[in-house]
Amino acid sequence: MDILFYFLSAICLLLGLIGCFLPVLPGPPIAYLGMWALQATERVQFSTYELVWWGCLVLVVQALDYLTPLLGTKYSGGSRAGNWGCILGSIAGIFLFAPWGIVLGPFIGALVGELIGGKPFHEAFRAGMGAFIGFLLSVVLKVALCGYFCYEAIAGFIQ
């Protein structure tokens, strides 16, 4: 039975890493399920503290995934129109222009939102870049967490 859980864990960890780049898959939660699959084996055991802590990290990273592009827009001088543009651009990018829309959607949305809001192009561009940098930061955070889960899984298996 352990072999099934090892296989399930490996699939979840791999899908979790892929999900860091594809918004269709929630990467960290899937990788976290892989850790629970390993916990179900006799060979790999994690402490309750680790599992709870990792669950909290997954919640924080998932929340930041949605907030960092908005915060990037806000802190680079964007207005409410830029934030709404960032949200709408993210949604449109996911569904209409994948895979490039996933990366460029927040940028273009914030840029267009600021232009519609009456800001000059250089200020709108700065808000769009803030959204793009926020998006990249969220990807880095997700990859770091999923990579850490992979490290812990391999370390636990080797012991």
Strand and helix map with partners:
Elements: H1 2-19, H2 27-39, H3 48-75, H4 80-96, H5 100-116, H6 121-158
Helix pairs in contact: 1-2, 2-3, 2-6, 3-4, 3-6, 4-5, 5-6
Describe the structure.
The protein is mainly alpha-helical. Helices cover 82% and strands 0% of the residues. The protein contains six helices and no strands. It has helices spanning 2-19, 27-39, 48-75, 80-96, 100-116, 121-158. Helix 2 (27-39) packs antiparallel against helix 3 (48-75), helix 2 (27-39) runs parallel beside helix 6 (121-158) and helix 3 (48-75) runs antiparallel to helix 6. The longest helix is centred in the C-terminal third of the chain and has 38 residues, at 121-158. The protein is elongated. The protein starts with a helix and ends with a helix.
Give the total of beta strands.
0
Low-confidence stretches: none
Amino- and carboxy-terminal Cα gap = 19 Å
Q: What percent of the residues sit in helical stretches (DSSP H or I)? A: over 70%
The dominant shape is elongated
DSSP helix count? 6
> Which structural category fits the helices and strands?
mainly alpha
Strand content: under 5%
Mean pLDDT across all amino acids: 89
Element pattern in H and E: HHHHHH
Major sheet details: none
Radius of gyration equals 19 Å
Short synopsis of the structure:
With 159 residues, the protein is mainly alpha-helical. Helices cover 82% and strands 0% of the residues.
Supply database-style keywords:
single chain; 82% helix; elongated; 159 residues; mainly alpha
